[in-house]
Amino acid sequence: MLSRHSGPLEPGVRHVGWDGRTLGDWAAEVDGADAVVNLAGRTVSCRYTTENLHQMMDSRVESTRVVGAAIEQAANPPRVWLQMSTATIYADRRDAANDEATGVIGGHEPGVPGYWEYSVRIARAWESAQQEATLPGTRRVALRTAMVMSPDRGGVLDVMLCMARLGLGGPVAGGDQYVSWIHGEDFVRAVSLLLAREDLEGPVNLAAPEPVPQRDLMRGLRRAWGRRPGLPATEWMAEIGAFVMRTDTELLLKSRRVVPGRLLEAGFEFQHPTWDEAARDLVRQVRAR
Fold first, then answer.
1. How far apart are CA 26 and CA 43, in angstroms?
2. H/E stretch holding 229
3. Nearest-10 Cα torsion for 48, 50, 53, 57
4. Predicted confidence (pLDDT) at residue 59 exceeds the cutoff of 70
5. What is the pLDDT of residue 244?
6. Degrees, nearest 5: CA angle 260-200-197
């Protein structure tokens, strides 16, 4: 495992340090590897200041480029490179879902804040960086990933549950903006499929087949936790809340309606295809923890 941070890992996992932007001794680990999975990138849960946006861009593009360079110089390159990407690359829309074949790439949709375009620009640059290296023997897949729901502390579900327990998990700005999500167990299973399926390359949406409006997402989570009340919030209230939590309202307000067209075509069967069932399973795991 390559990481910028040292620390205890699971048994059987070897840790190798890297800085996420330059070639080093770590590149020897790529030579002869069966596969590379790169998930590096600065968290998007922050205020969208100029500095933070540049860090989001640089951490994604630079780490992807250097992974490509390491594979390019390998005498025995890996057969497949799975590169993290984001479902945020698609346009804000409520009329239809975005799949890989017919989805609309965002950045120019009317009626949304202009600075949202930069998130799409990051996503496009991220995917472009994966294509820069000359890798005739390595299959490349871009993981256009929705919100990954897991019971771990510090993740998106942890924040949502905190709001639900406090009675603040109601609809935001009407709540009709769609949320695309994927259960953490299905994320891991989808990655395993993409590692094995040599016929799949290019962008693949990692999202459950049923995105839901934000109001329904939070309602399902409140029910799973124990029927807590959910106070609604206007857009300006969301702005205040996002400021206090040091994050940005784009994460709440952009309608990400994304479906896993290519995964379904490949025969992938979701263990958690619907949100209400997934929410119950995740809450059960949180309580067990």
1. 23
2. none
3. 170
4. yes
5. 73
6. 105
8 Å CB contact between 247 and 255: no
**Residues whose CB is less than 8 angstroms from the CB of residue 245 and which lie 6 or more positions away in sequence, other chains included:** 159
CATH 3.40.50.720 fits 2-288, yes or no: yes
SS3 of 99-157: the string is CCCCCCECCCCCCCCCCHHHHHHHHHHHHHHHCCCCCCCCEEEEEEECEEECCCCCCHH
4 C-beta neighbours (distance < 10 Å), count: 12
Query: Token digits for 7?
Result: 């620390």
To the question of pTM greater than 0.90 for the whole model, the response is yes
What three-state secondary structure class fits 197? coil
What is the Cβ-side half-sphere exposure of residue 239, based on CA atoms within 13 angstroms? Answer: 4
**Domain boundaries of the chain, sorted by first residue:** 2-288
The total of other beta-carbon atoms located within 10 Å of residue 65's CB is 16
Give the Cα separation of 34 and 14 in Å (integer): 16
Q: Could you give the CA distance from residue 59 to residue 124 in angstroms, rounded to a whole number?
A: 14
CA angle 174, 176, 181 (to 5 degrees): 125
The predicted-structure confidence for 3-21, as pLDDT tens digits, reads as follows: 876 666 677 788 888 888 9
The amino acid occupying position 109 is E
pLDDT in tens, 21-41: 999 999 999 999 999 999 999
Classified as helix, coil or strand, 233 is: strand
Phi, psi at 283, each rounded to 5°:
-65, -40
191 CB neighbour count, 10 Å cutoff: 19
| Cβ atoms 226, 162 nearer than 8 A | no
